[in-house]
Structure formats: C-alpha cells, structure tokens
Specification:
Elements lengths: L1 E2 L2 H4 L4 H12 L14 E2 L10 E4 L4 E4 H15 L1
Parallel strand pairs: 1-4
Antiparallel strand pairs: 2-3, 3-4
Helix pairs in contact: 2-3
Bound molecules: zinc ion (ZN).
Length: about 80
C-alpha cells in the first residue's frame, strides 16, 4: 500500500485540510478523498493508532502526521 499525498486529497485550503485531519484524529469515520469509501484505522489493535488510516478500496494509506507536515510546508510557501 502506498501513502496518500496532499495533492491527492484535492483539498485546496489549509482549513479544509486541517478539518479532514482533525476528523481522523478524533476517530470519526471519514470518506476516502479519492474513492469515497470509508477509511479504516490502519492498526486496529494498537493503542495510539489514530494517526494512520487506510482505504481498502484504493489501497492507500493516510498518514496524518506526514500530511500535516506537507500541509505546513505547502501553505508556508503560499503565505
Ligand atoms: Zn479510497
């Protein structure tokens, strides 16, 4: 499985991207930004597992901390 990049999320504002990440951190069910299937936790048995999610449909991994990092870099350049 491949990790999803910020570009693939097709979110073009920082606040929308943060809202998406916050939902995942809160453990709320969120649709995959690519195919719309519901994302699942990557490691169901781990205790501090809210960081990484996966889409079984397109076999992508959502690494929220990596996305946050990309987000900070992307929007730093724009502002
Ligand atoms: Zn998907």
């Amino acid at each position: 499985m491949e990790k999803i990049t910020l570009n693939e999320l097709k979110i073009n504002s920082r606040s929308d991207a943060l809202a998406f990440l916050k939902k995942l951190w809160n453990g709320e069910s969120t649709p995959c930004p690519i195919c719309g299937s519901e994302l699942e936790l990557l490691h169901k048995k781990a205790k501090k597992s809210d960081c990484d999610w996966q889409c079984r449909h397109c076999e992508k991994i959502v690494r929220t901390l990596d996305l946050l990092d990309e987000l900070n870099k992307a929007f730093y350049l724009m502002t």
